[in-house]
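Entry 14. Ran structure prediction on the chain below.
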Amino acid sequence: RPSRASRLGAEIASWSGTLKTGAAMMLVLVLAAIFAPVVAPYDPFVQDFMNPLPPPSLAHPFGTDNFGRDIFSRVIFGARIDLTIGF
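Output, structure tokens:
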């Protein structure tokens, strides 16, 4: 009798490439949300009034909002709320 891991591997192998890509993207999103305090480069609530609305850069991949808060960090922390509501 095949083990559970081998059956799971066979099931995943039968998925289309699109389904595998979507599942991988969802897994990355869920892991980023779970580990948001480690992954997010900045505190999503700290305001930097001297740095409002710069374009995306290496320091701020999505830029900052009009209060100087890092948008990338806010998106990662927001994913926690979205996934909680979704589940």
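The two ends are 34 Å apart (CA to CA). Will compare against last week's run tomorrow.
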